[in-house]
């Protein structure tokens, strides 16, 4: 039921701390991660000789895949790529039994992703699915299913599906790093600690950003364009934020790798254009600040998203949104919260049906 909320989208955004707790439940133990389905999978197959991993998904599920790629590559000694389902299903590189394919899908019924899975299986590639529906086509046809436990997601826009997918991918990363003796093994204890406070941190993000985002959404009401910029994981987050704003607020929002603006897109920056600058990754922060200064020099109206107390970022932006500091891998989950809320408020202030955006369907069963 909708209980206290006007829309499913807001209800599902607010449910994220609980949804994430369910994703972690019975998997995140004191000093370890155990995913029984993955244990079974490894018993059945010799997977220690994996040479490549591809994470396949569509839309928001592709963005989770891109986050997963960056995280897995830091922890493992294996090349990892993230592919768009509809592209992977028509043209893909070498596929064989040493190539692990991970399919991401909330519904488990997206035709493009099912087609990608069939392709992978045709060449003998083992397939792990991360979905929110156990009995879905992808859940049934994969060799191993990691169920996200997000609970039903009724709004068309994916919100809790996205944050629980990333959470599940991080759990899988930890398991794979151990099984394949990845060079990131010594980074696991710190990551485990951070996962224990993830749900609380998400709750804090909701509380810390909701009012400010509601106000900023009113400001965007007379704007036709909005840019999101970021580097590394923040770039993927920018892509996800732009997609949400396009589908829910019908706002022409575009995401760019922050360092790429000067190679062309900067020509579109005129005084007052809203730019959301994501700066949540400590190792990329100085470069992110330089890129923020570049758009500020063209008089863009910049809203920075960074971790609490980072006054170097707050000094160069027009408005700052603080979120709690957590492990860098978890920041794409935390920083997604204000972007989801922005899409929600920007859609409602324009009077749109945010739960049922025009031209879209929850489950895409055609290719
Ligand atoms: C965006 C959105 C879509 C879906 C995409 C894949 O908010 O909801 O981009 O992420 O259609 O759907 P699933 O995850 O069900 O395969």
UniProtKB/TrEMBL annotation:
GO terms for biological process: fructose 6-phosphate metabolic process; protein N-linked glycosylation; UDP-N-acetylglucosamine metabolic process. GO terms for molecular function: carbohydrate derivative binding; glutamine-fructose-6-phosphate transaminase (isomerizing) activity. It catalyses: D-fructose 6-phosphate + L-glutamine = D-glucosamine 6-phosphate + L-glutamate. Keywords: Aminotransferase, Cytoplasm, Glutamine amidotransferase, Repeat, Transferase. It comes from the Bacteria. Its EC number is 2.6.1.16. It is found in: Cytoplasm. GO terms for cellular component: cytosol. This is Glutamine--fructose-6-phosphate aminotransferase [isomerizing]. The lineage of its organism: Bacteria, Bacillati, Bacillota, Bacilli, Bacillales.
